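Most newcomers find our protein records easier to grasp once they have seen one. Sequence and backbone structure share a record, each on its own labelled line. Nothing more is needed to start thinking about how sequence determines fold. As an example, a complete record with its sequence and its structure tokens follows.
=====
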Amino acid sequence: MGMGNPQLNPAREGAVPTDPELVPPADLTTFILGTGANEGFQAVGEEFLGFFVDLCGLQPDEHVLEVGSGVGRLALPLTNYLTPEARFEGLDIVPEGIAWCSEHITPRYRNFRFQLADIQNTRYNRDGALRAAEYTFPYEDSEFDFVYLASVFTHLLPDGLERYLSEIVRVMKPGARCLITYYLLNADAVRLLEEGKAAVDFPYDHGQYCVHLEEDPEETVAYKEPYIRKTYKQHGLAIREPIQAGLWAGRDKWLTWQDLIVADLPGK
């Protein structure tokens, strides 16, 4: 594990810059991703494309699902990597993000599609029809070679996380891979939190997880690593060791901001 981003895979050298017309307006990225998101819009996308290729072995002709596709920050680099024979599906709870991607990305890249997950959320979709724990992904069984979620399980409580993980496994092909980011609480992270080195704290303990704000628990959620490991095992997912540690806790060695788990689905 190095400090910062991994070295470029040869398949990604000379990546095509993002078309300025495909960079969302600042007010939209701020609403969905937070202040300053426009400044590093392309860099974050290229960073994660590196993880997809280097850590997960993503091939240009594979079928990909992004849960939490937002305004397309991680999808856009894939438009220059995936072939027309590949398939990309984006799923998100924010209507404005789905509308932007559908209006700007899909007309240029017909194998990229985006769908709204009509899930209740106090910030993004107050009138959503379903809770996360009740939601069924709008895809058939065994459709995807690769599934990824960035900064999604950091905003879901256990009932939603376990439902999503069950759906992720359902739509993965045997032999498929998934990449998911977390705030993971293990001995190292707890020590750094106690030393005051972490960038975000989680003072409210709910057993399997801790939250940053008790009055708004889904604002930022951290999970205890043993619970996540147990949940993956229950769903038949094999974690690729080591789990990639994140900078958020104040570590000297890290891969990216959040902790990152890559896992395989050996068979069903």
